[in-house]
């Protein structure tokens, strides 16, 4: 795969809300295979796995393995994720929550106040 660059993909089984991997690969097919092999539990078959190219690749490279990216080796990255919902892809705030869970927590705190 000379002169080609690894692309960042979100790989998931059926729906991304049930869990997804950040995979660096050359093609969507390769990303799906890596993601399929990595999932600890599989609710479906390989055919149920989807890969979505994250077009802003540069943003995601910071969460990959620098040595593997430099060598052009496909691999799974480690993006920051929300400590409440365990999703990644949206900004994680200082308290470890995504903006959605952070907003829910603030709303719950307002509701508990007497």
Salient structural properties:
alpha+beta, 4 strands, 32% helix, 114 residues, disordered C terminus
Summarize the structure.
With 114 residues, the protein is α+β, with helices and mostly antiparallel strands.
Number of distinct helices: 4
Rg on CA atoms, Å: 16 Å
Order of helices and strands: EEHEHHEH
Strand order of the largest sheet: 3-1-2-4
* Backbone shape: globular
Number of domains: 2
Largest sheet: 4 strands, antiparallel
Parts with pLDDT < 50 across at least 5 consecutive residues: 109-114
Helix content class: 25-40%
How far apart are the termini? 63 Å
State the secondary-structure class: alpha+beta
Number-wise, the strands total: 4
Mean pLDDT: 80
Give the amount of beta strand, in percent.
15-25%
Question: Could you describe the 3D structure shown?
Answer:
- The chain is an alpha+beta fold.
- The chain has two domains: 1-79; 80-114, no CATH class.
- The protein has four helices and four strands, in the order E-E-H-E-H-H-E-H.
- It has helices at residues 28-38, 57-61, 66-71, 99-112; strands at 7-13, 20-25, 49-53, 75-76.
- A four-stranded antiparallel β-sheet has the order 3-1-2-4.
- The radius of gyration is 16 Å and the shape is globular.
- The model is unreliable at 109-114 (pLDDT under 50).
């Amino acid at each position: 795969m000379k002169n080609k660059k690894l692309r960042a993909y979100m790989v998931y089984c059926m729906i991304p809300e049930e869990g997804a991997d950040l995979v660096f690969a050359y093609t969507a097919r390769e990303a799906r295979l890596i993601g399929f092999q990595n999932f600890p539990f599989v609710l479906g078959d390989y055919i149920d796995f989807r890969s979505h190219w994250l077009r802003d690749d540069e943003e995601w490279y910071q969460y990959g393995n620098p040595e593997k990216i430099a060598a052009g080796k496909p691999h799974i990255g480690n993006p920051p994720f929300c400590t409440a919902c365990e999703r990644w892809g949206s900004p994680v705030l200082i308290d470890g929550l995504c903006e959605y869970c952070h907003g829910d927590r603030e709303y719950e705190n307002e509701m508990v106040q007497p």
